[in-house]
Specification:
With 230 residues, this protein is of the alpha+beta class. It has helices at residues 19-30, 33-43, 52-59, 63-75, 115-126, 131-135, 171-185, 196-204, 208-214, and strands spanning 79-92, 95-108, 142-148, 162-167, 191-195, 219-223.
Length: 230
């Protein structure tokens, strides 16, 4: 057990801290929850430039707050302005339209000297495969299996980050929960959700997607199907 040497900040317990405690620690270090979200967004999407509205949407922070935090991060040369041309989705009269937009965007300075230490800290403190992650999906149906991989175990090349199997699954609720997690961690999550019967069938035919999850590094958070003992 170790303690931080940062004034006024005590870090203890390591990875067994719950998400809220970790968020409090990061907020104490970095100044605000909004700044933590912006840091995650840029550090976990290193080569992607974002418009202010995209940042606000992805982090669920107000535009004025985003601009304030960007000003601080630009001042320390962690983020840089960049003129970009980008295709974005716009909802107009309940229809999704793809429109090409030109303007000022913001992107991570990949030569920032503390980039990797910051990314490692935010990864360890923010993205954890534990019981609290599985509990987020307790109200989406009769959940039988939850497996975390990819971003949740720092395996960045994984095909899928999260697998959810159950009965009477509410896909809209699952999608909403996933979007909230993405807002918190600053990175898009690749996930698959199957009804139990469909999953069992895919297991039987050695479906490639399922095998790519089970045959590679992963953490089983809930298993009422006995998958890990098969």
């Amino acid at each position: 057990m170790t303690e931080s040497t940062l004034p006024g900040v005590s870090l203890s317990g390591g990875r067994d801290l719950c998400y809220n405690e970790n968020m409090e620690i990061l907020t104490a270090i970095f100044g605000s929850p909004a700044r933590v979200k912006l840091l995650r967004l840029f550090l976990f999407n290193e080569s992607t430039a974002f418009f202010v509205k995209e940042i606000a949407d992805r982090t669920k922070c107000g535009t004025a707050l985003v601009k304030k935090e960007l000003h601080i991060l630009i001042k320390v040369d962690l983020i840089r302005k960049k003129h970009i041309i980008k295709e974005v989705e716009i909802i107009k009269r309940k229809k999704v339209i793809i429109k090409k937009i030109t303007g000022v965007g913001y992107v991570l300075n990949e030569k920032f000297p503390y980039r990797d230490p910051l990314k490692n800290l935010l990864t360890v403190a923010s993205i954890q495969a534990d019981e609290s992650l599985a509990k987020k999906f307790s109200g989406v149906g009769k959940v039988k299996l939850v497996i975390a991989a990819g971003v949740f175990i720092q395996n960045w090349d994984s095909r899928v980050d999260l697998l959810i199997v159950g009965e009477e699954l509410n896909l809209h609720k699952i999608e909403s929960i996933i979007r909230n997690i993405e807002s918190d961690i600053g990175k898009e999550i690749s996930y698959s959700a199957f009804e139990t019967q469909d999953f069992e069938y895919r297991m039987g035919i050695h479906d490639r997607l399922v095998r790519d999850i089970l045959d590679y590094p992963h953490v089983t958070l809930l298993d009422r199907l006995g998958i890990e003992v098969r």
